């Protein structure tokens, strides 16, 4: 009888392990994917913010409509990359699209986030303000894919 109980106990323990290990692996992958998504979103937000903070006055000479400038920025976090596209919508309004990606050491994309925001250029004031772009409140969005 003791041998039977020991075998049943081992079988139950084996079943618990067989169920728990795949669930734990799935939970680990889900957590890693969530962290990758946060890294990609952070990179995209940083790209948009750096573009606004480091606005190049030479961009103000671009034509309205079809002109898009791709800005290469350093990655804010290791394992991420950022690319920013500027589109001039009218003489004072710009669309900034910042794509942040979390990549593996081999270069495969693990997560990708796109952040877009509208920016209005304002002339520099007499005090010599160095930032010529201002983010429009409430006019930003992100795309998750």
Briefly summarize what is shown.
Helix content is 36%, strand content 35%. It is α+β, with helices and mostly antiparallel strands and 145 residues long. Strands 1-2-3-4-5 form a 5-stranded antiparallel beta sheet.
Task: Please describe the topology of this protein.
Blueprint: H1 2-53, E1 68-73, E2 80-88, E3 93-103, E4 109-121, E5 133-144
Antiparallel strand pairs: 1-2, 2-3, 3-4, 4-5
Structural description of this entry:
This protein is α+β, with helices and mostly antiparallel strands and 145 residues long. It contains 1 helix and 5 strands, in the order H-E-E-E-E-E. It has one helix at 2-53; strands at residues 68-73, 80-88, 93-103, 109-121, 133-144. The protein is rod-shaped. The model has no long low-confidence stretch (mean pLDDT 81).
The chain-level structural class is alpha+beta
Average pLDDT across residues? Answer: 81
Radius of gyration: 25 Å
**Gap between N and C termini:** 58 Å
Residue ranges: pLDDT <50 for 5 or more in a row? none
Count of beta strands: 5
Spatial sequence of strands, sheet with the most strands: 1-2-3-4-5
Helix content: 25-40%
Biggest β-sheet, characterized?
5 strands, antiparallel
Q: Order of helices and strands, N to C?
A: HEEEEE
User: How much beta, percentage-wise?
Assistant: 35-45%
Principal-axis shape: rod-shaped
* SS field, number of helical segments: 1
């Amino acid at each position: 009888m003791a041998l039977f109980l020991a075998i049943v106990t081992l079988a139950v323990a084996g079943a618990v392990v067989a169920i728990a290990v795949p669930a734990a692996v799935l939970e680990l992958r889900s957590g890693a994917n969530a962290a990758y998504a946060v890294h990609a979103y952070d990179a995209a937000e940083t790209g948009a913010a750096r573009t606004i903070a480091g606005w190049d006055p030479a961009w103000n000479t671009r034509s309205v409509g079809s002109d898009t400038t791709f800005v290469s920025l350093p990655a804010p976090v290791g394992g991420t990359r950022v690319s920013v596209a500027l589109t001039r919508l009218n003489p004072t309004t710009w669309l900034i699209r910042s794509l942040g990606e979390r990549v593996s050491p081999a270069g495969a994309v693990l997560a990708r986030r796109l952040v877009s925001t509208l920016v209005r250029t304002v002339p520099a004031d007499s005090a010599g303000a160095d930032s010529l772009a201002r983010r429009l409140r409430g006019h930003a969005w992100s795309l998750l894919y």
